[in-house]
Structures are given as C-alpha cells and as structure tokens.
Amino acid sequence: MVSFRKWMDQYKEERSPIGDLARDIVAEGTFPKSSNVDVIFEYMEKRDARLEYYKSFYKAWGMYERERAIEELFRRNRMAMRNYERLISAIISQAVDDYRAALKALSKNPKNIQANRDKSECERFFLGKWFSELTDVDGKWLMHKLQREAERA
Q1: Distance CA 127, CA 135 (A)
Q2: pLDDT band at residue 35 under the 50/70/90 scheme
Q3: Cβ neighbours of 8 (radius 10 Å)
Q4: Is the pTM of this model over 0.85?
Q5: What residue spans define the domains of the chain?
Q6: How far apart, in whole angstroms, are the C-alpha atoms of residue 153 and residue 144?
Q7: With contact defined as beta carbons under 8 Å apart, do 138 and 145 qualify?
Q8: In the prediction, which pLDDT does 41 show?
Q9: Inter-residue contact 32 to 5 (CB < 8 Å)
Q10: What are the pLDDT digits (tens) for 98-144?
C-alpha cells in the first residue's frame, strides 16, 4: 500500500476540504512519508494545524484506512485462492500417481487385490462429483490417457 502522502495525490485537483489538504501536503515538501498516524499527527501538532486541517485529515485518514483494509482483504483472498489451487493440484496429482501405480502393479499381476482396490478408488474419484467440482478436466478422458500411458510403458 502506498503511503498516506502519496495516496493523497489523487485528491489534489478536487475542490473540497480534502483537496485543500492534498494540495497542502504536496506544497509542503516536509509532510511525513510515513503512514503512521502518530507520526503524521505529531507533524501536524508541530505545525499548529488549524481545526479544519485536522477535520480534513481525519476524514481522509478514514478513507485511506478503509482502502488499505480492502486491499489487505483482497491480498489475503488472492493468497487463499493460490493455496486452494495448490491443494487441488496436490489432490489430483496424488490421485494420478496412485492410479499410475495401481495400473503398473496390475500390469505385473492382474490379480493384485490392493492394486485393484486402488484402481477402483481412483476411478470413483475421477468420475465423481468432487473431482468435477475441483477441476474442469474430464475424468474419463484422464483415465483413458493414463491407461494408454500405462500400456505403452
């Protein structure tokens, strides 16, 4: 997030108390670059700011804080989505690995009970509702591709 000082630049053309504040901040090259409210408040106290200046500052600060909070929520949401996508990828990759292993074991011994169970479990997963909710990949197509791959190996 940008500093309060930089954020205020967007209001410098506005004809309002916040626009006045923005122009003052730009005109005063000494306004703090910090986004710490205490640092800014101390700066204003040292400058003996007028009451209108404080009112404009608090209104602008509230807007700035809300925008920062929204940006933080979006950032967290993006991060959660990336983690969710990684989890989906790991689940599907594990199922693919398990299916490949079962097909390989069955190619060596078609009566392998555990390999048959694993193969059936993977097929139920690939054809099931959960798989279709996790991905747009067609489960039948994926199984066919993995079966052809196993036959060539």
Answers
A1: 12
A2: confident
A3: 24
A4: no
A5: 4-73, 86-152
A6: 14
A7: no
A8: 85
A9: yes
A10: 999 999 999 999 999 999 999 999 999 999 999 999 999 999 999 99
